Q: What sequence folds into this?
């Protein structure tokens, strides 16, 4: 940090403070983790300075032999780890991976007379009329994804996201009584809507998904099944999600981030069948420019780590810890969406404490417990204030915490939420954002959180 401080001390201070903050609090953000020193060091080096547009062995830049090695190894490790035919390791993020996947399916599936006429990959051979026709053909396709308010991600067709603008979209949700995906209702919607792409996967659904069933539905209506396993890739890699719950044998295309439960660097990846490989590899120049060579190196290291038996023990512990946390909250009277968990996350409905998700998030943060507010299905408080907080165990499990600590953390969370109340607004009505909490109680909890 001294080297950084010599150039811009405020950045060095922010980095140092971030390390302090992370050490002094309990990180329960379900999408975060702690990457290993090997992953961090593979990322912080001179590969960052290299341009390498193209794919390994087919570059638009000279001097790419080391990047070729890095990209080839990252893809080899990914294929072996997940048992996939093909791995494309360039996407800079989960959103890039999803965009790459959407366009791969469009270019594979949409019959485009304009492209057929051109019969070449040289875009200069397309006329203006061809382009207009192509825009029309590609722009009128349908996507069916999980709704944001029942746990889907914004890239699964949410209107303000590009996916909701690129596609005519519709969403499926969960059964209001159980909180579980209603496969029969999903099948009905798919039959009626007949999407080109059926997207499975989630950011805030605390249960496993049956990908065999999803594929059956996709096949029945002629859709391509795309699974976004960003949240649970570590549980697939660690062989906790197998059989019907492993997306790779069932979906034609699988996307992921690499930095969540998979514990790699911040980035994305696309896995696919052999038939889709050539379309997926067109991510550059379709969606991406130069790949982040240093991040691909860190992905290779993370995948190599995930192939070790220790990672399987880690993935099992992540799920055991989430269950212990859920049981700890339930035992103390907490309310959980779906009544529990069988993955790495718990979605607590905090309305029973008389709080919004925003108040719960803020009170917990000030008490050293970092979570994020999240809508619950049919949330009366909307997506900004919300009625829930999402809790995840990947990061604390990396730190070595186990079931006993999870139970204690459940007790700390329950204590904070019981002691917190909405602050009155100037008009006297309870605020949806501000809260009050006894300072000595808050500081006592924060001290215990730091000790843990
Ligand atoms: N897909 C899912 C299911 C996610 O939960 C996320 C991130 O939260 C993303 C995609 C996007 O990943 P990124 O933030 O790397 O773009």
A:
């Amino acid at each position: 940090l001294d080297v950084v401080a010599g150039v811009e001390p405020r950045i060095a201070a922010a980095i140092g403070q971030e390390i302090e903050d992370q050490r002094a609090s309990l990180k329960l953000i379900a999408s975060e983790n702690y990457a290993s020193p090997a992953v961090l060091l593979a990322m912080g080096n001179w590969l960052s300075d290299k341009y390498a547009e193209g794919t390994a062995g087919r570059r638009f830049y000279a001097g790419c032999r080391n990047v070729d090695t890095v990209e080839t190894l990252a893809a080899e490790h990914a294929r072996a780890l997940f048992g996939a035919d093909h791995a494309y390791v360039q996407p800079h993020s989960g959103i890039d991976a999803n965009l790459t996947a959407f366009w791969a399916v469009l270019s594979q599936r949409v019959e485009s007379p304009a492209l057929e006429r051109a019969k070449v990959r040289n875009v200069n051979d397309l006329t203006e009329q061809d382009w207009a026709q192509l825009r029309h053909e590609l722009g009128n396709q349908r996507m069916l994804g999980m709704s944001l308010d029942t746990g889907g991600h914004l890239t699964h067709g949410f209107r303000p996201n590009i996916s909701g603008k690129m596609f005519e979209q519709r969403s499926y949700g969960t059964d209001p009584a159980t909180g579980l995906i209603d496969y029969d209702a999903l099948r009905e919607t798919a039959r009626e809507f007949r999407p080109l792409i059926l997207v499975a996967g989630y950011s805030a659904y605390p249960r496993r998904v049956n990908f065999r069933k999803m594929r059956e539905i996709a096949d029945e209506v002629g859709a391509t099944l795309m699974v976004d396993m960003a949240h649970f890739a570590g549980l697939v890699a660690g062989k906790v999600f197998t059989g019907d719950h492993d997306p790779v044998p069932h979906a034609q295309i699988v996307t992921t981030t690499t930095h969540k439960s998979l514990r790699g660097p911040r980035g994305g990846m696309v896995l696919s069948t052999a038939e889709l490989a050539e379309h997926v590899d067109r991510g550059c120049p379709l969606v991406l420019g130069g790949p982040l060579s240093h991040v691909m190196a860190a992905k290779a290291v993370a995948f190599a780590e995930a192939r070790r038996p220790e990672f399987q023990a880690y993935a099992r512990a992540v799920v055991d810890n989430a269950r212990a946390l859920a049981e700890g909250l339930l035992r103390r009277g907490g309310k959980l969406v779906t009544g529990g968990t069988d993955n790495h996350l718990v979605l607590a409905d905090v309305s029973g404490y008389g709080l919004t998700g925003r108040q719960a998030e803020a009170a917990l943060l000030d008490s050293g417990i970092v979570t994020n507010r999240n809508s619950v299905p049919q949330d009366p408080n909307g997506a900004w204030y919300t009625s829930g907080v999402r809790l995840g165990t990947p990061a604390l499990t990396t730190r070595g915490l186990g079931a006993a600590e999870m139970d204690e953390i459940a007790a700390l969370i329950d204590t904070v939420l019981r002691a917190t109340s909405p602050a009155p607004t100037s008009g006297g009505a309870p605020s949806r954002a501000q809260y009050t909490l006894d300072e000595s109680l808050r500081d006592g909890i924060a001290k215990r959180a730091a000790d843990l």
